[in-house]
Each structure stands twice: as C-alpha cells, then as structure tokens.
Amino acid sequence: xxxxxxxxxxxQNVWLYGGSLVIILGILIFVHEWGxxxxxxxxxxxxxxFSIGFGKEIYGFTDKxxxxxxxxxxxxxxxxxxxxxxxxxxxxxxxKVEDGEEIREMTTEERKVAFFTKKLWQRALIVLAGPxxxxxxxxxxxxxxxxxYGQPVSPPTxxxxxxxxxxxxxxxxxHDYIISIDGKNINDFSDIRRxxxxxxxxxxxxxxxxxxxxxxxxARPKKVTMTDKFGFxxxxxxxxxxxxEKGILxxxxxxxxxxxxxxxxxxxxxxxxxMGTSFTISFKDEExxxxxxxxxxxxxxxxxxxxxxxxxxxxxxxxxxxxxxxLVTETTETGEDVLYLSNLEPELYVSHTIITAVxxxxxxAYTMTVSSLEALWQMVVGIRSVTELGGIVRIGAIAGETASxxxxxIILLTALLxxxxxxxxxxxxxxLDGGHLMFYSIEAVIGKSVPERIQEYxxxxxxxxxxxxxxxxxxxxxxxxxx
Length: 483
What we know:
Blueprint lengths: L2 H10 L1 H29 L4 E16 L5 E15 L13 E4 L2 E4 L2 H5 L7 H30 L1 E3 L6 E3 L3 H4 L7 E5 L2 E2 L3 H11 L4 E7 L2 E7 L2 E6 L5 E6 L2 E2 L5 E2 L3 E4 L2 E2 L3 H10 L5 E5 L3 H11 L4 E2 L8 E4 L12 H4 L6 E2 L8 E3 L3 H28 L10 H12 L3 H19 L7 H14 L5 H31 L1
Antiparallel strand pairs: 1-2, 3-4, 5-21, 6-13, 6-19, 7-8, 7-9, 9-10, 11-12, 11-18, 14-20, 15-16, 15-17, 17-19
Helix pairs in contact: 2-4, 2-11, 4-10, 4-12, 4-13, 10-12
C-alpha cells in the first residue's frame, strides 16, 4: 500500500479510524483517572479537578463536592488534581491556598483533606488505583466476553509444519499437541504465537504430546521482520507451526512429495490414498505459503525477507476430517474442494461460569503483562529494535481496522490497551504513577520523604523523557507510513 492509497483509505473511513480511536482512548483515560479519583475520595482527599485531556477547557462543570469535571482540547491523556498539589503530576505540594486574590495558610480542616497530609499507605493506594483499575477494567471486559460469547479457543496443535522452517529442523511433526513452553501451560494456539513472537530467536523448551506419548523438544524460532498493511514494522519469532485452520483449497496444491498432478481428480484420489500418513505438498502460488505464515502469526503481515518464503508444508490429514473431499457441493459455500489439515476443530467456544471466566481473564491479563515486559526488556538490551515502538498514529490505525471487524475484536482490543495503559503507568519513571510509587518506596525504607527539590528535578527529567519517547514513537509511525 503506497501513501496515496493509505490517505484515500483513511480519508474514506475518517470517522471509523478517528472515532474509534477517540472513543477507546477516552474510555480508558476516564477509567484510569476515575481510579485515582474514587480512591482519593475514599481516603478523604478533596479532588480539585478531573480532566480528560490537556490544555484549554472545552466543556466542564463543578459538582457539589467542588470538583471541576472537564474535557480539554488535547485528549491524549488526562489528570486528577488533588488538593494541596501545585500541579497535576503531584511533583510538588503547598500548604498555601488561593482565596480570591489572597494567598493564605490552610486551615486545620483543609489540611485534613489535602493529599500530602495523608499517610504513606493512603498516598500509595491512591496512586496505585489508576493502573489497578485499568487491569480490573480489562478483566471485567474479558470475563464479560467469555460469559456472553464463550472464550474462543484454538487448540494448540500443529496442523502442518512449514518445509525448511525451524519447526522441521527441530523435529516437530503434524498433530503434535503443545502442552507447555518453558514451563508455561499452553491452552490456546494464540499462546504459542505470543511465546514465539516474544522469543524472537531465543531457545525455548517445549513439552508436547505425540500419539499419546510425552516428548520434550528444545527449539529456537527464527527472527523475521514483518510489515503490516499500513507499513508498520515489527520483529517476531517464527517457528513454522501452522495451527488448526479451516482448510486449504485443493486447486491451490501443486504437488505431493514432489510429484506434480495436473488432473484434479487424480490429485484428490492420491490425497485420499495418503490419508493418515505424513507427506509434503507444495503450492502453485507462493502467496499461499505467505498466507499460511500470516495465519500462524495471527495477522495480515508479510515477511520482508524473501529468503524466509516457504511454499511447501508437511501434512498428515485424517480421513474422518476429509470424508467430503471431492463432494464439492457439500464441502464449501463456494463449491470448491477443501483439504482439512488438522485432526481437531479449528476453533471452539469454551463456556464459563462467573468464577472460571474471571480466572481466565486474570490469566490472560497476566500473560499479556509478562509478554509486554519481555518485549520492553528486549528493546532495552537491543534484541528488539526501538522502531517497533508505536504511538497514537499506530493505535489509531489498529483501532480503525479492529472496529471494522465487529464488537468482539473491539472489546479484546480495548482490554489489551487497558492492560498496556496500566502496565506503562507502573513503570518506575518520574511523571508516571510508577515514579510516584518508587519515591514512596524510598520513603518507606528511609523513614522520610525524598527532598522535594530532588523529586522536582526527577519529574522534570521524566517529563522530558516521556515527551521525547512520544515524539519518537509518533514520528516513527509517520515515517513508516510514508516510507
């Protein structure tokens, strides 16, 4: 997609891309700040301002408790200003109060509702409430989705192995069922994708079930560079395992074990004879292999390096899954013959009780957090390129694309972004909630607060760092879009 096609696509769907971005970010920012707000109120702290966005106020009102609720011009964040703080970042505090044109000392009653007068655990709890409620919100979304629709699960089985891939090199076979990776239980094929994407080219230990036997394999995925339809680049690990899918068209098959078949009926007859055995198929068009790779990674991405192209698969289709092969009127809606590779259904919806839905949602939130932490550490040590950092431009592209797919993907994306927002705010960087918690931890150890001047310098440095990261991420997004 060139830049002109991109501009045309976004221009035709400006409300979809822009609207979905504003709505999702608005909800997540409100949830985050409401966490700070409600816990501050519970701890007896007066909240002066609750703002969605920064800059000039567009709309607002003051409630009975004296809190100014407002929407500001730049909706790329928000803040809750607590009584006694001199700025929204809580980098400084003062016991002075502006009373009209007069500046006076706080009264005894006012000091009782000031943030800086509260006990250490109360201040820490108020700060922690923002990221905490982001996680809680994501868990509620996921649990609600699992209860309403069921949890979509694709079995962690190898429907096929890519010829020439690392999966073939390390001895994986069709229908291997992956039980765990590095001691982490695998319940869904997406768990394999996630583990490999983060692993890049690092070694992983697999426990698999093969024909009723437990086998252990130590394997290393291959690090490849992927580019999506918008031009955003990311590095992922590709092992070469194809998950349970809906099938491949017989018309796309070029050869079986290197022997080409020009007659379709002859090809189908050979496929039926080979049911239950392992053999290799190649495709007439290499794009079919690229599509298989994209399906393994769960995206519409393509590999940038042509050396990674694979146009053949090792398969072992089962007779009971292909009983209708050759009966085109019964096989697909389009009337084309389909060969099913997996021995299991490609997707199941697992029903949940409230308890199991919450448990699964918590597990998913934990897994996402660990993956984010691993990816961030890889950027720090240089294993993963910092050009994979995405800003508001990339989030907008993802939000718009997801919004076109329906309500379930939107809920999943909102939950993912909520977890990421909570995770990022817990990082020990001054200006973020994690920076405040870092200073509170020091205060708990040394028995007194860190000098305000030191905190102020730290927050200024944190502000410069965050602005630089945001600028880099968004400029990087724009560069990748137009390059």
